[in-house]
Specification:
The complex is a heterodimer of chains A (about 525) and B (about 500). Chain A has about 525 residues and is mostly helical. Chain A contains 20 helices and four strands. Chain A has a domain of about 220 residues. In chain A, the strands form two sheets. Chain A has a two-stranded antiparallel sheet with strand order 1-2. In chain A, a hairpin with a 4-residue loop joins strand 1 and strand 2. Helix content of chain B is about 70%, strand content about 0%. Chain B has one domain. Chain B contains 20 helices and two strands. In chain B, helix 6 runs antiparallel to helix 7, helix 12 runs parallel beside helix 18 and helix 16 packs antiparallel against helix 18. The chains are: A mainly alpha (about 525), B mainly alpha (about 500). At the A-B interface, helix 5, helix 6 and helix 7 of A face helix 16, helix 17, helix 18 and helix 20 of B.
């Protein structure tokens, strides 16, 4: 148990090195190695969960080692209720991702090596407690992602890959400046826990360009994270990257990589700049509203099924933003409504997880139909229900989960976000119900066009979803259904940590500098 | 210290002179077809010189030759850096097809003479010595740039280089003469004393002089707007020489610039603290900031449009000079430290990138993007190392390039609010640079047909690629020993009053 977090991070690298030594024509062996590596990692995440003390809202399983003493950089890992669900999700989706990519034909060796490198980057971001380490892992993800989209993607893949890379790097550079600003104004440390203690006070007395340092750094970091989420207007890379990426990469992109943005905002912006939370919360909720409505409208207009699902991500992450903004409800100014703050932040974090499972499922299902029909035009199908009954059933559940049907997990988290946000942002919450409507509309309309009506003659002999594909979807379906009916295990993991965060934000915010 | 006594502190340079002389005589004795052996003589000699420098005790800073040059850890650091670059380039030159049809003896001992000139550059503390050492380096570079006699491009490069070089060193000399005229001395410290004690009436003359001197330095580090020679010379010269010019003379010029601005125009003790005061109220810090911003931006933006990889790397090296110049105006111990760290990182990644160009030119005889199509699959080692170098030049972690940028940016942020805008511009520039660096990767992997047969470059070239790639990777993850060594080297000779 001592080095379990290190194992989680470095296991994929071990797998990658192993794959590097396998001759490139032994494709099955390469795939098996990737499956074994990610499978082991998934099991380890479950072991971690089993040993995790959910009553404790602080960091657990901490590992610390000296790295670069002259800059106070250390190898510092830890896990709490905020990161644990994401770690489990990462383990699960990467494991499933291996099977989703089972049919990759081109350069199998390179594909799985990069896939595992990406895994290390993602895991590292969720587990690192040193800001420098965090940044390194954050950037390690970019290159594999670039290759995975650019090599194995669709027709416009090269453009999509470089656009993704440029966008994210732009955000990362701003983030780096923010990190350096924090380092020099908060007693020269990259330790996130230490910064969480020191930064709220240290920053409040510094002014840059006539603006409080809190605001400057908040904006720098926020843009870096917002591009990943993606928050409107930084979302334009996302539909393109999603559409061009191979199925497994879309799954990971929507399932995990987008969550890194939300995770970063909660971990870093909320932890280090509680005053900034108050300053920015209204804008955050408003951006959430735009995401919800804009994402919904865009999804409604799409002809390409994968693009529709991509825009649904923009729409769904909006709920998370609105929920996050509700943290301020716990402050005096809003009547110390702790329940609302808990519901809002908990909802946001829950939504992260649910969107991870639901969008992963949706992308896998889009991949299934694309594999068979070689196109994704919604209008090009019709009447598939009679041809592929099992596929239709599974897709129906996934779509319903996506539109937030009660009984499925998406409903609970969306409801929590709204319940939390309502006392503070009544107008925004009411307005964002339009988004829910749109959400239902685009999913149902797409479903109707694909599965009902006349069967397109071309697809008379479309084969049913096969076992391998079912194997990748069913676990996600079970999680969605289970958490929709009985969300307690999840809420149990996060609740103490959420309380700690809310406590921290509310008690450390001074308003003095604002 | 007088001339005779100085000789006992000068033995690495004397040894280097012996190596050069031996190489010249040896070249006369052997057959033209065996002229490559001179290269090995030079490499062996340089290793000996490096050992001599390593064991020379420079911690007791000493001025030599009646205050013309100085022996201090700072110069030792740069000397070792330059020797490393020369050794790398000499070894690769032996395996470059470009030079195959030429007699190579001269080539190698000219490289040796450049090395000697650079040694002088990094340790000179006298205006005359500054000028003479720059000229030693420049004239040898002119010859080497035109070494491919039968290639018109190479001839063009040499001629352009001569014209620009003569022009800018003329301007520089003119600037130096102003300084001499105003102060009556050529010694850095005496000049500083006189400037510090004189009033501000001659400020405009000094400003003129500084601008002119900057033209000379700017030419050597290829800073915009003194960069116009760079692309043509880099494209036309033998690639090995391009690689050399992109690192060694730049390192020398940076060392010289740091000395000049720190010890003539600032209070000389800038290293010890964060701030410094300018000897006169000259705005030279803003001048250099402007130069840095222009250099980065022009370098990066023009690099995007290049179709020739060598030329693209020429513009990229302009941009990198800009990143290093960024830290110059801060003139704190940390910012000089950052420049030194950056130079070490830059040495490995940039030399590596040029070695890949050489390897591929050996194979396809081309250096445009089209010649790189699909090579990543055909030559896995070349593909992977090139990806690493490109990523590192962009400044992405976990590679050496990121650490270099990290130190530069950190020193700027630490320098205070007046430098933040430089960080933002530097950051945006590295995003821009990503586009053209990744284009190389894109061409190597995404374009062209995948071939099933693998080709590996000659063993020595592979070894050289690895010798640059491994540090590029490792220094991005653990750079404590290097950082420590550089920290210890950050000791200047400073005149006590």
């Amino acid at each position: 148990m001592d080095y379990i977090l290190s194992w989680l991070i470095w296991l994929p690298v071990i797998g990658m090195v192993a794959i590097a030594f396998i001759p490139r024509d032994k494709e099955v062996l390469i795939k098996q190695s990737a499956a074994v590596t990610t499978g082991l990692q998934f099991v380890l995440t479950l072991v971690l969960w089993n040993n995790f003390d959910s009553k404790d809202g602080s960091m657990q399983f901490k590992e610390w080692a000296e790295w670069i003493p002259s800059f106070n950089i250390s190898y510092y890992l830890g896990v709490d209720g905020l990161s644990l669900p994401m770690v489990i999700l990462t383990g699960m989706l990467f494991f499933i991702g291996v099977f989703v990519s089972w049919n990759i034909k081109k350069a199998v060796k390179g594909y799985f090596a990069l896939f595992l490198l990406l895994n290390t980057g993602v895991m590292g971001v969720f587990l690192s407690l040193d800001f420098f380490l965090f940044y390194i892992f954050w950037e390690v993800m970019l290159l594999p992602m670039y290759f995975l989209i650019g090599m194995w993607g669709g027709p416009q893949r090269e453009y999509a890959a470089i656009k993704f890379f440029l966008y994210t790097l732009f955000g990362s550079v701003l983030m780096l400046i923010g990190i350096l600003g924090l380092y020099f104004s908060c007693g020269k440390t990259f330790d996130i826990l230490e910064l969480t203690r020191v930064a709220p006070e240290a920053l409040s007395s510094i002014m840059w360009w006539g603006m409080s340092a809190i605001k400057v750094i908040w904006i720098l970091l926020f843009i870096g994270f917002a591009i990943k989420v993606p928050v409107f207007p930084f979302h334009t890379w996302l539909p393109l990257a999603h559409v061009e990426a191979p199925t497994a990469v879309s799954v990971l992109l929507a399932g995990i990589l987008l969550k890194l943005g939300v995770y970063g905002i909660i971990r870093v912006n909320y932890g280090l700049m509680p005053d900034g939370v108050y300053w920015f919360s209204y804008a955050l909720a408003f951006l959430g509203l735009i995401n919800v409505v804009w994402g919904g409208l865009c999804a409604l207009a799409q002809k390409d099924l994968k693009k529709l699902v991509a825009y649904s991500s923009v729409n769904h992450m909006g709920y998370s933003l609105i929920g996050m903004a509700a943290v301020v409800a716990a402050g005096e100014a809003h009547g110390a409504n702790l329940k609302a703050a808990q519901a809002g932040l908990g909802g946001a974090v829950f939504q992260m997880f649910n969107h991870g499972t639901i969008s992963a499922m949706l992308f896998i299902l889009v991949g299934v139909i694309y594999e068979r029909a070689h196109h994704r035009e919604i209008e090009g199908f019709g009447g598939l229900a009679s041809q592929m009954p099992v596929y239709t059933g599974v897709t129906a559940v996934a779509f319903f989960a996506g539109l937030g049907l009660p009984g499925l997990s998406g409903f609970i988290s969306e409801a929590m976000c709204f319940i939390g946000a309502f006392p503070v942002y009544k107008g925004i919450v009411i307005a964002s119900t339009i988004g829910i409507l749109l959400n239902a509309a685009y999913f149902l309309w797409a479903f109707q066009r694909i599965f009902f009506g006349e069967l397109n003659e071309k697809y008379n002999d479309l084969p049913e979803i096969n076992r391998l594909e079912l194997f990748t979807v069913i676990p996600l379906l079970v999680v969605t259904l289970f958490l929709g009916i009985y969300p307690a295990p999840y809420l149990d993991i996060i609740s103490s940590t959420m309380d700690t965060i809310i406590e921290h934000v509310v008690s450390m915010a001074t308003y003095a500098s604002m | 210290m007088n001339n005779l006594q100085s000789l006992s502190f000068f033995y690495p340079e004397l040894l280097l002179t012996l190596v050069i002389l031996f190489a010249i005589i040896y070249d006369l004795l052997i057959d033209s077809s065996e002229s490559g052996k001179v290269g090995w003589v030079l490499v062996f000699g340089l290793v000996l010189v490096a050992i001599a420098i390593w064991f020379q005790d420079s911690s007791k800073v000493t001025t030599l030759f009646t205050d013309a040059v100085v022996l201090d850890p700072f110069s030792t650091f740069f000397k070792l850096l330059i020797i490393l670059a020369t050794i790398f380039v000499s070894v690769v030159s032996l395996y470059s097809n470009e030079l195959r049809d030429y007699r190579k003896g001269e080539y190698f001992y000219l490289l040796g003479i450049i090395t000697f000139g650079l040694f002088m550059m990094v340790s000179s503390i006298d205006l005359i010595m500054v000028y003479v050492s720059i000229e030693i380096v420049s004239i040898m570079s002119f010859v080497l740039a035109g070494y491919l006699k039968k290639n018109t491009r190479s001839n063009e490069a040499a001629l352009k280089y001569v014209v620009y070089g003569a022009f800018s060193s003329g301007i520089m000399l003119f600037g130096l003469s102003y300084i001499y005229g105003l102060t009556g001395s050529t010694n850095f410290f005496q000049i500083q004393q006189i400037l510090a004690s004189s009033g501000s009436e001659s400020n405009s003359a000094i400003l003129m002089a500084v601008v002119m001197i900057l033209a000379g330095f700017g030419y050597k580090v290829s800073a915009v707007p003194f960069h116009f020679w760079t692309p043509d010379v880099y494209e036309g010269s033998p690639t090995t020489i391009t690689a050399y010019l992109s690192i060694a003379p730049k390192a020398g010029a940076f060392a010289m610039m740091i000395r000049f601005f720190n010890q003539v125009l600032a209070d000389g003790g800038a290293m010890s603290g964060l701030g410094y005061f300018s000897t006169t109220d000259l705005p030279w810090a803003s001048l250099i900031s402007l130069l840095a911003v222009l250099t980065m931006t022009v370098g990066n933006v023009v690099a995007i449009q290049q179709d020739n990889i060598k030329r693209m790397l020429a513009y990229s090296s302009i941009a990198h000079a800009g990143y290093m110049l960024l830290a110059m105006p801060v003139m704190s111990g940390d910012s000089i430290y950052a420049i030194m760290v950056y130079l070490v990182m830059y040495l490995f990644m940039n030399l590596g990138a040029f070695f890949v160009v050489i390897t591929i030119k050996n194979k396809t005889d081309g250096e445009t993007f089209d010649d790189y199509k699909g090579l990543g699959w055909e030559m896995p080692i070349v593909g992977i190392t090139m990806t690493l170098f490109m990523v590192s030049l962009t400044g992405l972690p976990p590679t050496a390039g990121f650490i270099g940028k990290f130190y530069i940016f950190a020193s700027l942020i630490q320098g205070g609010g007046s430098f933040y805008w430089l960080v933002v511009i530097g950051g945006v520039n590295s995003v821009v640079s990503l586009y053209y660096y990744l284009r190389v990767v894109k061409v190597m992997y995404f374009d062209g047909d995948r071939k099933d047969s693998l080709v590996s470059p000659p063993k020595v070239l592979t070894a050289m690629l690895l010798a640059t790639a491994v540090p590029t990777m490792v220094l991005g993850i653990y750079w404590v020993p290097i950082a420590k060594w550089i920290k210890e080297s950050l000791v200047f000779f400073i005149q006590t009053i």
